[in-house]
Amino acid sequence: MATVTPVSPHPNVVVEGEGHVVTVTIDRPESKNGCTGDMWVGLGSVFQELRYAGARAVVLTGAGGEFCSGADLTGAGEASAGDGGPQGSMLDGMRVLADVVLQIHSCPVPVVAKVDGLCVGAGLGLALAADLTWCSDRARFSAIFARRGISLDFGTSWLLRQRLPVHKAKELALTTRIVSGQEAYDLGLVNAVVPADALDGAVAEVVDTIAGGPPIALSLTKRELDNASSSSLAHALESEAVAQSVNVQTDDMREALTAWIERRPPTFTGR
C-alpha cells in the first residue's frame, strides 16, 4: 500500500512524505515553535490520519533548529469566543489537548522524535509521546511547568515515569532545571544524542530501518510494549498469541521465510 501524505489542517504544521516515511514539522520559528491551541488540534488531526495512510515510520520535529517551546500561553493566533472561536471551559480545552497526546502516543505507526534546540513544557511531552527520541548535542529539555505556576500536563506526569525512575522524574518536575542533550541521554530520557550536524542522518538511518521492516508485525510489537506497563504476564502472553495468529497469515511472514531460505534481504509489502 502506497503512503498517502495527510494534508495538514494548519499552516504551521507541515507534513511531508517520502517513500514510506512521513515527516511532521512544527513550523512557527518566531515562537521557537510554541504551539497555539489550533496547532495542537492540527497535530492531533494529522496523527489520526496517519493511522490509515500507509506510512511505516513518522518523524516528528521542529523547524529552525528548535523542537518546541511548549504551549503558546499568549493566545497569539487564536480566535476568541467573541470572534466565533470555540466555546467551553478550561477543562474542555485540556481534554482536547489530552486527545492530541493520545493520537500521537497511540499511533500504530512507529514515531521518532527528532529534537534539536529547545524542548520544554508541552514540547517535552510531545517528544516523550513518540516511541523513540533522538536529539542533538545542543538540545535542551525541561519540565518547565512550575515556572509558569502550573503542574505537569500534556501527559508528562505519565510519560516521564515511563522513561525515568520516580525520583528522577520528580527532580526534573520539581526543579524545572534545564537538561542538556548529553544528560538526557545519560538519564535514559532519549535514545541517542549526536552532533547537531549529524542529527538528520542519524534519524534517517533509524526510520529507514523501521520503514524497511514488516509493518503489521512492528505495529503489533509497538502495541505489546505499550500495554506491558499495565498488563500482567498472562495478559501479555495472550496478546502475543493473538498477534502471532495475525502475523502467520501475512504475506510478509512468508516473504521473511522465503528470503531467509534464499539468503537475501526480505522485501515487505505490509500485507
Structure, explained:
The protein is an alpha/beta fold. The protein has two domains: 13-211, 2-enoyl-CoA Hydratase, Chain A, domain 1, CATH 3.90.226.10; 215-262, Lyase 2-enoyl-coa Hydratase, Chain  A, domain 2 (Orthogonal Bundle), CATH 1.10.12. It is 43% helix and 14% strand. The protein is built from ten helices and nine strands. It has helices spanning 37-50, 90-105, 122-129, 156-163, 166-175, 181-187, 199-211, 215-228, 233-247, 251-262; strands at 13-18, 21-26, 57-62, 111-115, 118-120, 132-136, 140-142, 179-180, 192-194. The chain has a six-stranded mixed beta sheet, with helices on both faces. It has a three-stranded mixed beta sheet with strand order 5-7-8. Helix 1 (37-50) runs parallel beside helix 2 (90-105) and helix 8 runs antiparallel to helix 9 (233-247). The N and C termini lie close together (8 Å). The model is unreliable at 77-85 (pLDDT under 50).
